[in-house]
Amino acid sequence: MASALVLTVLAGCSGGAGSAAVSVRDPAVGAVPTGSAALYMTVENHSADDAILGASCECATEASLHVVEDRGGILMMVPTDRIELPADSSTDLDPGGAHIMLEGLEEPLEAGGSIQVTIRFDRAPQRTVEVPVHELADLAERVESQP
């Protein structure tokens, strides 16, 4: 991606209980005609343990969290209530791993456009992120470029 979109989420300025610092980098969703689309990003947690608890988007009737689990040698996408964000670490939501699934898309997501997605965290306040829409082939590069 030519430029990284960075959103810094600061929760509480006092540094007391419940404060967190989370940044969201490189959010992306694939272009699809209708139906469902997976949302990917990198979340950097600069503070205490946190978690993504959910998301919403006006373009989708539902947004759910998914992880990929190995069940007897078969990789399965399974819903989850939360995506953990360990303290002082980076968590990738990428193809083949944890992601946010936007479901019930009634309008096409067209490459070159963007959507607004609100992400809910356990500790940090919810924030809205602008997510660029990419060709599906471009999203495969997210996996190929990972070390």
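(the above was protein one; protein two follows)
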Amino acid sequence: MAETNSENHGIKEQKQIEFLLQFSASTTDYCVCIVDIVSSTKIMMSLPHVKVSRYYEIFLNKMAEIVRKFDGIVVKNIGDSLLFYFPNTATKQTREFENVLNCCFAMLETNPEINQMMSSEDLPPIKYRI
């Protein structure tokens, strides 16, 4: 019986390796971006836990909303950052890269709106980089 479990494990492991090799054999080029809060550690040290959560929530949700408006896909949030990409850039069409830039400009232009939201909830202003 131990051999059977060992053999099954070996077969599963081999299938996983084959899958990973197949995955790595195909590549697609995308424009990948990240937006993160400047000096977030310092800011977070001065806020109570409840306010920290709200601070991140306001920022990350607003950024994700903008990404979606420009046909981007959010991969995940990484603490104070949002990782996202634009699948249409695989076509390598100039207009798709202009769309990426327009998304980033929209993020920057939204800073006053986000800071107004922060202020209304008694949170410190936010600075971020893309």
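Reviewer note on protein two: The beta strands are 31-37, 73-78, 81-86, 128-129.
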